[in-house]
Known about the structure:
Elements: E1 6-10, H1 16-26, H2 29-32, H3 35-42, E2 47-54, E3 57-66, E4 71-79, H4 88-100, E5 104-107, H5 114-118
Parallel strand pairs: 4-5
Antiparallel strand pairs: 1-2, 2-3, 3-4
Amino acid sequence: MNGTAISYAAVSxxxxxxxxxxxxxxGWTSFHTDPxxxxxxxxxxxxxxxxxxxxxxxVGFAYVQSDAEIQAHLSTIAVLHSHRRRGIxxxxxxxxxxxxxxxxxxxxxxxxxxxxxxxxxxxxFPGFRIYPGRRT
Length: 136
């Protein structure tokens, strides 16, 4: 499969197993332990999910939530380890902009990914990820 052209598409049900496998490899239990829940998340109202395909196999995906006018949030992006450093994630972000209709995308970066996000026109600012429950 390596070396075949990469195509980009909106998610379809046939892509679910590939996405779930990527999430399993990444250790993202929220996504891979319940594929039906994952499908509902990736296709919820206001969500744009882009897949990167090589010979019909999913090699990456990006999950964006948007108001379709001004702002969006890049919630999840992943590319198979074997396909990294080939511009796939960059192209998925570009596709997300085109398809979701937003003028900006906010995100929370994970460890080691800052340099990738800095390659886009951007503005950095501190942020928080809030979980249910209050700390007293």
